[in-house]
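ESCALATION

Customer reports they have been waiting on this structure for their group meeting. Please prioritize. Original submission:
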Amino acid sequence: MAGLFFGIFIGLLLPIQTCLNSRLRQSVGSPYLSSLGSFFGGTLFLAALALVVEGSVFFSWDDVAHQPLWIWLGGLFGVIGLTTNILIFPKLGGVQTTVLPICGQILMGLLVDHFGLFEAHQAVLTPLRVIGAVLVIAGVVGAVTLGGKRISRQPSTAHEAQSNTGALRQVSANASPQAEPLLWGWRALALGTGFLMASQSAINGHLGVLIGSPTQAALVSFTVGTTVLFLLALVLRLKFRVRVPDGQKKNPWWMWFGGVLGAIYVFGNAFLVPLLGTGLTVVAALVGMISGSLLVDKLGLLQAPKRQVGLGQVLSLVLMLGGVALIRLV
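Update from on-call: job pushed to the front of the queue and completed.
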């Protein structure tokens, strides 16, 4: 039970990370550079944590020398998922960009457990687990579509929404009309993003078991992600320049700590997957994300616009918790 609450806790961190990264994007002018700064900060944090906990950032190569290449793909999948969300938001709008990847994460998490993919502990897909997954997805749809009106006058741009790393804040869908076949292609891509994110959790969990350290596994994931984003910035010829946005006196110190929260999330996944299984770890984190998003909306944390949180959203969260309970029972 403690592991389940920890999974919900790390999910709570992601909406807060979104606020930090959104504010960083305003100062650096690019969602890619904001992600790079976040990943780099997370890498430094995990390196320091590994030194304190393990005494070294390095692990024995003998532990992974004869393992398949996919054990190194966790960080790459994370970057692909992040970049894809940036691309699909203008095409699908906020609701579909939120719901479809979540559905993909839940489905892939249960499939990983059912088939024992990525060397995961096998947990057969039972009718109760299926019903639980349906309840969680229904709760997500309700929490996203029943969002309250904004009650703050603080501006919120499409670019701020584009820098979303998976956190589930309510955003206005300003997607441009698309031809129906092309639209379904973007939807399939959004669903595939969720598959990649769940696979990332399973891969990092297995890597943590192999090297005996979820901290070092998370560090590997962040190092790979930072490297990929750095190369992407070089290809796009982006320059990392920090400025103070118009209308503000200075940049807040907290905008640099999004990577730390992301690092804790990745570490938490690597730690929990061997204990809870991929499916339950993913679902618990998603419940935390929704809860954290509603909290951010209600309180207007970290310069986020305040929004009303309605009874329908609260009931949707209860529905999700019921789904988690069903999945946990088997």
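Sent to customer with the following note: The CA atoms of residues 69 and 187 lie 29 Å apart.
Escalation resolved.
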